[in-house]
Amino acid sequence: MRNGPRFGNPREAWDFLRIRLAHRSYEVFAVLWLDVDRRLIEFDEMFRGTVAQAAVYTRELAREAIRHNASSCILSHNHPTGSCDPSRDDVALTHRVRDGLALLDIRVLDHIIVSPTSAFSMASHELL
Q1: Contact 89, 56 (CB under 8 A)
Q2: CB neighbour class for 36 (10 Å; exposed up to 12, middle 13-18, buried from 19)
Q3: Is the pTM of this model over 0.85?
Q4: How many Cβ atoms from other residues are within 10 Å of residue 73's Cβ?
Q5: For residue 68, what is the enclosing H or E element?
Q6: Which terminus of the chain is more solvent-facing, meaning fewer CB atoms within 10 Å of its CB: N or C?
Q7: pLDDT digits over 36-89, tens only?
Q8: Domain coordinates of the chain in residue numbers?
């Protein structure tokens, strides 16, 4: 039985992620692995990058999703520069990961970009 928080809406995930990622001076790509009830199984800081980018590998995400027996996930990364606007590369990466994990029946619920002052939900802006 899992006791992690339940993420029923983007705001709950924003708050959780801003506390963990917003203060970083380098980019971190992290994942909230969730069970069938959208309760947190694990918060994983998967990839670390520079001030402007981090390399993300779908294969590694798939391996961790299976290891955690996740039903869904919320992708996230920080923008140390402050703007939470997604780049074209951010959107393309999200679609690539979404499509890859879908083959394993793991749903990507959102991709949230955080900064020290704000957050951006791709699902809320229909970019997923």
Answers
A1: no
A2: exposed
A3: yes
A4: 26
A5: helix 58-68
A6: N
A7: 999 999 999 999 876 566 788 899 999 999 999 999 999 999 988 888 999 999
A8: 12-121
